[in-house]
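Our platform keeps sequence and structure together, in a single record for each protein. Such a record has a labelled line for the sequence and another for the backbone structure tokens. The tokens are whole numbers drawn from a learned vocabulary of local backbone shapes. The remainder of this section carries one protein's record, kept here as part of the documentation:
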Amino acid sequence: MNRPFSDLKELILLQVENGLDMGRILQSDHACADIVYHISNEMHTKLVKYILHNDNKVWFMIDESTTISKKSALSICLRVNIPEINIVNSNYFDLIELTNTEASSIANSFICALHDFGFDNNLLLRNWVSFACDGASYMLGKKAGVAHLLLNQFPNLILWHCSNHRLELAVNDVDILPICNMKSFFDKLYSIYSTSPKSKKELETVAMALSVKLNPIGRILGIRWVSSSARSVMAVWNNYAALYQHFHESSLDLRRNGGDRAHYAGL
């Protein structure tokens, strides 16, 4: 049902109202979570035993995430070739908390998680085919990124960055003046209205006076999905009247210093 465990109590009451005898075992969301975690761990263990027994080829992808408590975490996905049924199966494998987000710490936490489930270095050297990462540039890296550190340990790895981000990263790497200027402009807008509550409030006041519905402005040509850049461009397009008015008023506001007025005039 894709509902959080905290909804369990209400779901049980709903089923009781529908006349279903729910018994007394699964009344606690904590008990339900424990059962789910136990089953998932058993499934992971069984899958790893199958891979070890059959010497299957494996592929891993990692992505940064956060736990419910907003702690940094690492999401791990596994793909494994199953010759018996001629398919490559994809599985969500694990979510581990990170002590910090340095490349060396992420790489060590990832390898330790694989060891905990039974993957030893000998099997990984022999059967680990490909590694993909989804996130910031330090995940891939050319000198000290996560992927580079793993490649030092497992030299036969094929490294991939998430294909969904490759287009944006490729365009970002192109040294063309109009593209650089556009990216710089969007970065400046994001900086002004995301880090300054005062500027955001001023823009909202201007937008209200002009009857403009504001859309959040994000960055472009970064490590996010291509659609995120499209949303940012459309946000600026839709917010144009309010943005122009705010820049104009701020450039003439004598309560601001000369540098701020010149900054808004430039925008």
In short: The beta strands are 58-66, 72-82, 87-97, 128-134, 158-161. The longest strand covers residues 72-82. DSSP finds twelve helices and five strands in the chain. The CA atoms of residues 83 and 208 lie 62 Å apart.
